[in-house]
Write a structure and sequence with these properties.
Elements: H1 13-33, E1 38-44, E2 47-53, H2 62-68, E3 70-74, E4 84-92, H3 96-102, E5 105-114, E6 124-128, E7 132-136, E8 146-149, H4 167-170, E9 174-179, E10 191-197, H5 200-203, H6 209-212, E11 221-226
Parallel strand pairs: 1-4, 4-5, 5-6, 5-7, 9-11
Antiparallel strand pairs: 1-2, 2-3, 6-9, 7-8, 10-11
Length: 227
């Protein structure tokens, strides 16, 4: 007798497409499950968009951010102070929204991307606990992204912990002053730090922030100027 080799029937094309789709979803889930989302904030007209993104978004691509990230609209007067121990990226065209978002905010890893060609005024942002700063001025200057390691101290406040009182701000030893005019020029990012600074309002009388924000007078701080 002549043996006949059995042949397997290929699954219908519809089933094959469904199987491939399911495998793709499973692979994407496995890839993103261990990824930490980053926070992206950008201003459009009179509103602010706060987004949680699982992947990097090309700077200043608002349409892609709205498509790929989970975003919600926040009115400027409804902004609450929040700490960030993860990655925070802010796209901006002027300094008005930045002051609301960053002044005396705990941010460890910050990226600022200028998305316009406006000349920025001489203003300073005061940021608590900043460890690393990245800036992108590609919209204004054809220069690569710059990165600066500010300090490498231990962990600051817990991630995304709302601070209802001023107690959390007073526990941070590191304060950075960011000169916003650095976005007007193409020079390299620079900084210098002053340690063991006490009596902040007396040592820096030209910074009005200390007159409106309570800081312990008997505490020693590390002050960094970024320009």
């Amino acid at each position: 007798m002549q043996a006949h080799a059995g042949t397997r029937m290929a699954p219908p094309s519809g089933h094959r497409f469904l199987l491939i789709s399911l495998l793709g979803v499973f692979a994407f889930h496995c890839f993103t499950r261990g990824q930490k989302n980053s926070t992206l904030i950008f201003a459009t007209e009179n509103t602010i968009r706060n987004c949680s993104c699982s992947a990097d978004i090309r700077d200043c691509d608002y349409s892609l951010a709205n498509l790929m990230c989970s975003c919600k609209t926040v009115l400027p007067f409804a902004i609450e102070r929040t700490s960030y121990s993860g990655h925070l990226t802010i796209w901006f065209t002027d300094t008005s929204a930045l002051g609301l978002l960053l002044n005396f905010t705990l941010v460890q890893d910050l990226k600022l991307s200028l998305c316009g060609t406006n000349t920025l005024p001489t203003e300073y942002l005061a940021i608590w606990g900043l460890k690393r700063l990245r800036i992108n001025t590609e919209a204004k200057h054809a220069s690569p992204e710059q990165s600066l390691l500010v300090h490498s101290a231990g962990e600051a406040e817990p991630r995304d912990k709302p601070l209802a009182s001023h107690t959390g701000w007073q526990t941070c030893r590191y304060v950075s002053f960011l000169d916003m005019t650095l976005f007007n020029r193409e020079s390299s990012l620079k900084s210098f730090s002053v340690e063991n600074v006490a009596g902040m309002a007396n040592n820096f009388p030209y910074f009005p922030y200390f007159n409106t924000f309570p800081i312990l007078s008997n505490k020693s701080y590390v002050v960094t100027f970024i320009y």
